[in-house]
Amino acid sequence: MLVIGGGIVALATAWLLQCRGHRVCLIAPDAHGPDPGECRSGSAAALGVLMAQVFQRSRGRAWHLRQASLALWEQWRQELAGRGCPIPFQAGLLLLARDAADAERLQRLLEERQALGLPLDWWSPERLEEQGLAGGDGNLGGLHSTQDGQLDPLAAMDAFRRDGLRRGLELISDRVLELERQPAGWRVHGHGAAPASEAAWLVVAAGLASEALLAPLGHQRPMEPVLGQCLELVTSDPIPWPCPVVWQGLNLVPRPGGGLWLGATLEPGDQAEPTLLEPMRQLASAAPGCGWIRSAAVARHWQGLRARPIGRPAPLLEPLEPGLLLLSGHYRNGVLLAPASAQWALGQIEGSLTCR
């Protein structure tokens, strides 16, 4: 089986297929790992926030994918840690109310989730102040989820890669140029001098590059780039918050030992706009207890591109023709939905094999 893509969805899919006894080859320009100074893939630039239980809807495809992924992440993290490939994880996620109307909306969401038996609770302004999130009149409370959280995307990708290699996963660092139908499957032509790769099954999980690869085959799946910028801020003392915080669409992730990751997917196109960084910092500093962000020193700045489908809901999980699967267009949720996407691909492949 061939998997095209170097992001977390491609790696998770290749790893899961390899775990199930399939012979898998993953092809991507950075198959052996990204260069931190050059990488602009969405996965490597993501903050890894897993927002499933506090998702705004309680039904439908998006809800079920998130619930399936959250459960799989718990299972996979334990399995990978037992095999010497731990993935750092911060349990819990706190959504701060930005105003009275937002507080009412979050409290209604809390009631819906508690009716489903999910472990969410409301943190009062007093509780937030105890956690270092004091903010005077702007502190209206927040919705806390114990099962959501944040994991390190680069560590997760490395874990899939390392454990996959131990299990026999083949990695080819090359840029795919063309997909070719074969009588018994698919042939992939790359940019390098290596011979073309062939397999009965081909999984295209190449983000924005998926569109150009599929168009010559007659599959039109237009996607637009959306860019996210992130900052790592320096703190003099460790941040006392017990978990990552979401404030007006911004993710604020405390780092072990000190520091803060701050970021959001906020720009259309594929070119970063430096002037948007300061407004992002100003908005973050308006969160309860976060005034220090306004003057905090920046340790580093990075960015990454996400693929947002045009005219179709994200993500694109589609069987396009015999032996050809598309897993792409995850937009802002590639890290969260990687396990459910991989599980879907496994079901498509093994279900088809069973029926033969």
Order of helices and strands: EHEHEHEHEHEHEEEEEHEEEEHEEEH
Q: Which second-level CATH architecture of the largest domain applies?
A: 3-Layer(bba) Sandwich
Number of domains: 2
Taking all residues together, what is the mean pLDDT? 93
DSSP strand content: 25-35%
Q: Based on DSSP secondary structure assignment, what is the total number of beta strands?
A: 18
What is the CATH topology of the largest domain? FAD/NAD(P)-binding domain
Q: What is the helix fraction of residues, given as a range?
A: 25-40%
Judged by helices, strands and strand pairing, the structural class is alpha/beta
Note the overall shape. Answer: globular
Biggest sheet details: 9 strands, mixed
Radius of gyration: 21 Å
Count of alpha/pi helices? 9
**CATH class value of the largest domain:** Alpha Beta
Under CATH, the homologous superfamily of the largest domain reads: FAD/NAD(P)-binding domain
- First CA to last CA: what distance? 17 Å
Low-confidence sequence ranges: none
Describe the structure.
With 356 residues, the chain is α/β, with parallel strands linked by helices. The chain is 31% helix and 29% strand. It has nine helices and 18 strands. α1 runs parallel beside α9. The mean pLDDT is 93.
Summary of the model, kept short:
The chain is α/β, with parallel strands linked by helices. Helices cover 31% and strands 29% of the residues. It folds into two domains: 2-48 and 153-222 and 311-355, FAD/NAD(P)-binding domain (3-Layer(bba) Sandwich), CATH 3.50.50; 91-151 and 224-309, D-Amino Acid Oxidase, subunit A, domain 2 (D-Amino Acid Oxidase, Chain A, domain 2, 2-Layer Sandwich).
